[in-house]
């Protein structure tokens, strides 16, 4: 019970609930004001305008939010006018529905924010079917009142943002830390749960994508605000927390360990990994608590458990050496030492967040130059050319627009010829659940139907118990606000609450509410069926056929990241920005690839062509970026020796192998060969450096010098990590090239 109350308290303070309150306020104001002045008949179109403007109110820079809302208002007014003027003429209405459905759904090519504007435009089209306006004056008044509603919502949104200007940022930071805490705990499980690694790795793909999405929005919000208004103390704190979250994410990525080697080294001695696992879990819990404190006042958790876990993990290294004995224990000890160093770096970042959140005065400041900060922003291209380039069957969004239009027109004609009373409910269901991918459409259809049935049962039960119209009004209003708050988090619950709200609104208008409940469920089922069938049979867009572009980008960004890491190794100061930007681009590329793979798993089994091969490519690419991040992370946090020419030779070899994979996908086949003898010599020299340092350490132990100094330890760590990771990267790149050749030979010729 206590946990449920805690979660409910967090929900009430989330920015999603805040946006629900904004919507509720925007709806309540015209109802109260116009009822008081005796012009309640003007309230419904204003409320519709409020509702249609709400979707574009998402986290981001205030400028983009205002621009999106204004475009949203203009679009919904235009669409409403087109449909209302066309309604008396069936053929003209059919043309209008076809035109609006196709071109507005195609607007989604401009990104997530544009897709929400597109959604509002399509909603305006559907809701226009519920409006009975005949004369020119009636239609224009209705359209103008929708515009008034949109402007009212924009005003309410700006006022709320002025009252709580940092709520969106705090929510995004909180969500990011919460996801990272889950990712950290998942990484701990990977160390010892050998039988569950494939399942855990697939879960990690989802988490990586979610973290990257949150961090992309945070970059836009924090960096854009900083460029516009300069630096404030509060914004400085937010940016510091964000940078620490990025560093933590990179550190976790950097420890995508060679688990086969871990299994080989520790074998039956996995108990020596338990301290590292426990430390990870404690840090994960700590991040979770910090994420909650960002949106809800609370006490910063005590750091004693963190420090105790650190001590235990460090002591375990000595226990392992004493149990196994040197020199046999050296490789395992270095693995544990590298793991402990990585976790110590994680701990420093977490403690940095703690210091920021406890208002410690001497926290470091961010010195990112304005001209540099713009390089971290991913800008959306809004030129007309982007839309024109999408006008082909090769475009996923074009096929979706065609499919969606046919589904909408079919549903409209179905309602017309069979005289279905509320056809727009079927159309509304299609608009809400139909997505470019089959898997997401099917999932949303299922959630929509289940949610609608649950909502209908609840509403039916309440209607049986009481006929109190005041209670109906309160429940309709509250359930609508909560439904809008939950729509991004829990679509099934949102659908249930939305059904409750709609049923009670209709119960206030029509005496036979049971008939409303019945038809609501039936129409939802019809709309969901049309959406799923259309996605399966009409210009289907199976993810296995759409991976080429995503794969190409991931390979190119990995290659760029590797080369930037080499430059960073050569000169940390000069090439720091180059490395950070390349890291960000590589993480985004692998996140997009992981998201594409996740969509593939939602497609029907029969359409998951060469699933195992694609999974292998995704996993190899993921492992490569982690191995590169591990090298970059070591360079960043340690004093390193000068870059050897052997390292450069191996980087060139790996880069060339990646280029061969890219050439295969692009059908260019421009092979640039590096002599295998040169690569083998470079590998041998790097391994020899480690063996030389290792032998020197053995000699010192024999002489009684059992205590190792920091320089020797760091030298051993560097030689061991560089030698092993470069060999690992060579093997990974070769396997990736082979898998890419198989992918090209088996999948691409079919297209």
TrEMBL record:
Task: Provide the Integral membrane protein YccS N-terminal domain boundaries.
Answer: 73-319
Compartment list: Cell membrane
* Major site of localization recorded for this protein: membrane
Coiled-coil intervals in this record?
none
UniProt cross-references to Pfam families, sorted A to Z: FUSC-like, FUSC_2
User: Which residue ranges does UniProt annotate as crossing the membrane?
Assistant: 21-38, 66-85, 90-110, 116-132, 139-160, 401-418, 448-465, 471-487, 494-511, 517-539
Q: Which UniProt keywords apply?
A: Cell membrane, Membrane, Transmembrane, Transmembrane helix
Record-annotated Integral membrane bound transporter domain positions: 411-533
One cellular component term (GO) for this entry is: plasma membrane
Q: How does it sit in the membrane?
A: Multi-pass membrane protein
Could you say which protein family the record assigns here?
Belongs to the YccS/YhfK family.
What is the designated name of this protein?
A: Uncharacterized protein
> Which species does this protein come from?
Putridiphycobacter roseus
Give the organism's phylogenetic lineage: Bacteria, Pseudomonadati, Bacteroidota, Flavobacteriia, Flavobacteriales
